[in-house]
């Protein structure tokens, strides 16, 4: 036989192996239609899902932002009956219902991400073929709107979009986990992630703020009450530790709940007014101007000025707000009675270039350096533009725009003896292993006042509350020192009639300040608009609440 085949057995071996190879190739390249149909109903899918994002805490260890388990649903078109779409009416968006009412291509379509418990139960109760669920992590803010403008919010994939969430994204963000899903021919989904060989992403870091949630609650509550009482358009409160510049509370109104995604597209709600909105400070700017003039020796502590109802200044004039003469006023009385005419005379004693430089040294027209995004620098024209009545206007807080944070930081320098501090809101940042990456600390930017001038200003501001325009903030149990402010709103270079911003900035106790705070109420609409009658009562109520809640340590009671 071998002779008939050429005498070699290898030819037969080659023929057999060739036949086997052809059969294998044909099965792979031209499979049986039944096998194709079966295999198409079995597949592996790699689905990225949200994992734990770093926690954010207040200074007492209270969690302000965390990640919690959540359920998402997806659809597999291979097992889906478009006729079942109507059963999801009222649960899913109308546009999505329309989409899944038709035959779909592919094998994966998200239906809803990170559902509420009620929605999860509704979808489960339908028990529809082709809809599957998968476990994810969802960003959750347990205190709802509390500190929302500072914390910010994340997108559906837990990437920070605003506030602390965005500013510290590299620390807080955890890369998506990859869930490996396999489907049986029956349509049953199997999560085989643990057997996939993929590594779990490393955990994120954590962040501790300087904010005290208890003070924050008080501040937000009283601010909202003041806003609603006076029909105001916006508002802000910032409270600092007088010795360090740490933010104890930072509130903005209108507010929003970052847990409700429908609120996140409302630009007027998500802006942090404390750092992202500028306004003309009006008379709350006068302590700064007076401090500059005293430090430069332009005026004396006991000097007296004649303050008629109106004075002519270059191409304009400066008038008293109460439309009557103030007579002769000592420098301290100019502040106590908030005389525009008197303060304009004080400010014009300082050369424009020197005043500009000093105001810049106080932090105006600059980034405050706080660890937040969306921080405005304010508006401060260069001295070359200080023509005509401009120097006088700036002396009374007009023609310059500031943020609430900038102004309260300046008042803080008066409270602590003349040290301009960098405000900070982040106390500590740690990575996944617990190593400290950043620690917020007291930082003196520069000394803007001598101790003597600072002490003199503190006493003058105390008299503003005892005898002047800030009397509505006076509290018998504690010595408050402050300054009122009322300024018109300018739009397109012109002041708008009937639009005002009321403010009140101060500290307590006056002798040894512990806290510094500013209250700003923007565009009140129910008749009252002066800082002393709109913002001062809010300030007083916050201080009273803090005392009753146990924040009275170190406060000195007046006899």
Count of distinct strands:
21
What is the mean pLDDT?
A: 88
Q: State the major sheet.
A: 7 strands, mixed
Rg calc: 34 Å
Low-pLDDT segments: 192-201, 553-559
Distance N to C terminus: 128 Å
Tally the helices: what do you get?
Answer: 19
Residues in helices, as a percent range: 25-40%
Q: Helix- and strand-based class?
A: alpha+beta
Strand content: 15-25%
Q: How does the overall form come out from the CA principal axes?
A: elongated
What does this structure look like?
The protein is of the alpha+beta class and 559 residues long. Helices cover 30% and strands 24% of the residues. It has helices at residues 10-29, 33-40, 94-100, 117-126, 148-151, 163-167, 169-172, 213-230, 267-270, 273-276, 286-295, 331-336, 340-347, 352-361, 390-395, 404-415, 451-467, 531-534, 536-548; strands at residues 44-49, 56-57, 63-75, 109-115, 131-140, 177-183, 189-191, 206-209, 234-241, 247-253, 304-307, 310-313, 316-319, 327-330, 419-421, 426-430, 436-439, 444-447, 481-491, 494-508, 515-522. The strands form six sheets. Strands 2, 3, 4, 5, 8, 16 and 17 form a seven-stranded mixed β-sheet that branches. It has a five-stranded antiparallel β-sheet with strand order 10-9-21-20-19, sandwiched between helices. Helix 8 (213-230) packs antiparallel against helix 19 and helix 11 runs antiparallel to helix 17 (451-467). It is elongated and about 125 Å long. The N and C termini lie far apart (128 Å). Mean pLDDT is 88; it is low at 192-201 and 553-559.
